[in-house]
Every structure is written in structure tokens, then in C-alpha cells.
Amino acid sequence: MKIKEIVSALERFAPLPLQDGFDNAGLQIGLTEAEATGALLCLDVTEAVLDEAIALGYNLVISHHPLIFKGYKSITGKDYVERILKAIKNDIVIYSAHTNLDNAQGGVNYKIAEKIGLKNLKVLEPKENSLIKLVTFVPDAQADSVREALFAAGCGNIGNYDSCSYNLKGEGTFRAKEGTHPFCGTIGELHHENEVRIETILPVYKKAEVIKALLSVHPYEEPAFDLYPLQNDWLQAGSGIVGELDESETELEFLKRIKKIFEVGCVRHNKLTGREIQKVALCGGAGAFLLPQAIRTGADVFITGEIKYHDYFGHEGDILMAEIGHYESEQYTKEIFYTIIRELFPNLALQQCKVNTNPIKYL
After folding, report:
1. Which of 64, 75, 212, 350 is 20 to 30 Å from 170 at the Cα level?
2. pTM
């Protein structure tokens, strides 16, 4: 298969519009028309990772952290980021799924929650201003086919429900002018048609795809439709996760278990107060910005990869804070890549990189 087919599969799972504004997820280097010889999965793209891909004969590297994160004025090979020269010389394509994978349902934070054993998962900070409502008007007899096309294009998903719509029957009127080709009615005469008003919801980034689907199946020559911005939170996409353990644990038991699961050299935490750990909030990577949201949910502990020194002050009575390291918190992202690709491309040579790219060492 071509590399672009693998990229398409990743972007269906974690669409690029889900990435945060500061990010640079997506294709980093190379041309996706090439046939894939194999894919190496990693957290960071370093020279050692590229050497591993070259030794395996793979021409695709998929990373969580983007290799190119800022603008460069020169490409000289003077640091590891600029060693993109090695990828180019060896015809290696590099693709990164970063905050789009963090924010996607089933993404990075869901994997962390799975490792810990959490249930009843909810997004800690849902995406805002990301949903719109589509309203259109369709002849009664064609309403089912239009609804089905809209649902197939990505409309009507609310929580664990799909095919969601509201339908109201009414009467539409129109007069076809000369030069038109009306689906029903007669040119020059006012026509009355029994219609269904269909309302459904969709992510804003799917707007173009949905409108294309609507126009392709709607029977009218000039379909009427409206799009309304919504202020609803998108509860299925966003930063962080909060969930619950089957059974409560003491603070020390929980921290020791986290240390073992994520192979952490050192778990940094605030003062233990003797609370029982049942409700857990978390965010992979640099997630300290979600501490206030974690406290508001009533979570007993907040786990993330990085917490600044001053963030530890003043929260002893609010929540247990556990800092497990950026790399450690996101290391299982490679498993997400593996599952997505292996299910769709069972014959592709696929491997999680053996290089530990964590730049932080523990004495």
C-alpha cells in the first residue's frame, strides 16, 4: 500500500483539525505517494530512530512529537532536529500525530486511563466552539436517503449515540423560473410540497464534506440549508480524562502502582494526606494547565507528565498531584499507532522503535 493510505487511516482516527493552535502535527517530511516498505513507531524522531528505520529498510516513521515544531532559517545538520537531512537523503517519510491524537476519542489519554484501569471516562476539558448544526428541508419521500448520507458524512454523533437528528414535517413552497429543471412542480407555477425539516449536528471541520454529501443526494436543484454555530462543549474531544477505579487505593499504593506501570524513575508528588484514591484525572505530557479542572471534578489525584515547582503550592487539601515524566506518560502512544495500522494493514512491516528517546535520565 501507499504511505498516503496509512496517513489517511491515522487522520480518520485523529483528524488534524483537532490539534491545538500551537501545534504542527501532520506530514513532516517526504512524499506520501511512495509504496510503504514498513513503518517504525516512536515518540520522538531522533537520529538513532532514523538509524533504526534505515537498518530495518522502512521508509516511514510515525511519531507522536513533531520533528519540525518551529520555523527554521537554515538546514545544516547542527542539531538533532535539523538532521532531517538524513531522512531526506534516505527517502524516509516522517508523519506526526500530536495534540490531535491527545484530543481524539480513544487517543493518548484514553490509553493512559486503560493502563491505570479507569472506567466511566469523561473528557476533562472538552473542545469549545467546535460544533455546528445543519438544518435542511427535503421532500418527505427523500428524507431517509438524505439523512443516511448526512450520517455517513459525519453528522449526528452525540456521545455514545449516532444517527441523531430532529425531524419536523411541514410544507414548503417555491416557483421555478425559466431555465430551471425542477425536481417537482411546473415552471412558472407556485408549487406546494410536503417536506421534512432535518436538523443534525456535526464537527465544524466536517462542514465541507457534509455539504458535499448533502448536495450530491438532495433531489432539489437548489437545496435550502442553514448552518448554525453552537456554543455546546464537544464532550467527545478535548484535553485530559477523568475516570474511576473499580476499588479505592491508598495514596501510597496508587503512587507505587503508577511508578511500576509507567516505569518511572521518580514520581514527584505533593504531600500525602491519607485520602483514598478512587476518582482519577490525568493528562499525558505537559498537562499541568488542567489542574484547576481536575480539582473542580472532585478527583482525588491528578497525574501528568510535567508540573512546575510553584504549581505544587496550596493544593494539599484539594488533590494529590503526581508528576511521572513527559516521556513516561506518553510512551504507550506507540501502541495506539500499532493498533490503528495493524487492523487495516495486516501485511505491512510494522515495529515499535526500540530506542528510548527520553532525554531525561535518573541517577
Report:
1. 212
2. 0.91
| Alpha-carbon dihedral sign for residues 129, 135, 141, 142 | negative
Instruction: Measure the CA–CA gap between 97 and 10, rounded to whole angstroms.
Output: 8
Contact 195, 140 (CB under 8 A): yes
| pLDDT recorded at residue 79 | 78
Per residue in 90-133, pLDDT tens? Answer: 999 999 999 999 999 999 999 999 999 999 999 999 999 999 99
β-pairing, 60-63 vs 119-127, is unpaired
The answer to whether 314 and 270 have CB atoms below 8 angstroms apart is: no
User: What is the number of other CB atoms lying within 10 angstroms of the CB of residue 283?
Assistant: 28
93 neighbors 207 (Cβ within 8 angstroms):
no
Dihedral sign of CA atoms 270, 271, 275, 276 in order: positive
Distance CA 53, CA 25 (A): 20
